[in-house]
């Protein structure tokens, strides 16, 4: 029984992308009053059928990890699936229409783990949170400093946008997108031509620099997520090859591992050449 469950879980056909899509369509149909009034019972029955299939899928996945079911919860996506599916049976939740719909909507999010490219994007977003958080703090500090300077400069000339530090910070935050920048520059020039430096410096530092740093953080996180996904695929291939006596599969894994090591080997050779060149120069 456990072997059959493991075979099912390892099969690419096991993941019910079509069922998740159909479940999403049913949830969307329930937002239309006319459809809900005419086919509400049918849509509710379809939701229950989808939940039943998801429960069976969850039981099969848990069985595949026997005799160590705890290993199932070592994977974040498995924990997410378990919470989303079992949450529908919590006491009192089915009586709360809003929470029940949110939980059903979360079942649609399960499609993320079934699509490798989309899974990479999600992992990249999660890994970029610390860097983006630090960047957000720096941006807030910058907006506050420029907001204070703007309040000092334009408090009486432009009270609608710089009447207090809160309004000034909101104005500077909107200026991150460069919206209405020419209008603000014209208003400032009516006070003094030197105010142009205030806006130019802000655009260069806040808008261009901040957004480029943000893009850099996201790109770096995407690269890390791709490496993690690539490593996971290699481990899955290595585990599958270890369960068979196929010499061709073992050879393929060995060649792929050596190919993966090539960038590191080339980097080591380049560092060795640089070290030799430096030693000869001295």
Fold and architecture overview:
- The chain has 282 residues and is an all-alpha fold.
- The chain is 81% helix and 0% strand.
- Helix 2 (17-29) packs antiparallel against helix 5 (97-109), helix 3 packs across helix 4 (76-86) and helix 12 (195-242) crosses helix 13 (247-281).
- The mean pLDDT is 78.
- Helix count, DSSP H or I runs of 4 or more residues: 13
CATH topology of the largest domain: Four Helix Bundle (Hemerythrin (Met), subunit A)
Structural class of the secondary structure composition?
Answer: mainly alpha
Order of helices and strands: HHHHHHHHHHHHH
CATH class of the largest domain: Mainly Alpha
Q: Report the CATH superfamily of the largest domain.
A: Voltage-gated potassium channels. Chain C
The percent range for strand residues is: under 5%
The 3D shape can be described as flat
What's the helical proportion of residues?
A: over 70%
The overall strand count is 0
What number of structural domains do the residues give?
3
The largest sheet, given as strand count, sense and whether it forms a barrel, is: none
Report how far apart the termini are. 70 Å
CATH architecture of the largest domain: Up-down Bundle
Radius of gyration over all CA atoms, rounded: 28 Å
Q: What's the oligomerization state?
A: single chain
Mean pLDDT: 78
Low-confidence residue ranges: none
Summarize the structure.
This protein has helices at residues 2-10, 17-29, 33-64, 76-86, 97-109, 111-114, 116-127, 129-154, 159-162, 165-174, 181-191, 195-242, 247-281. The chain has 282 residues and is mainly alpha-helical.
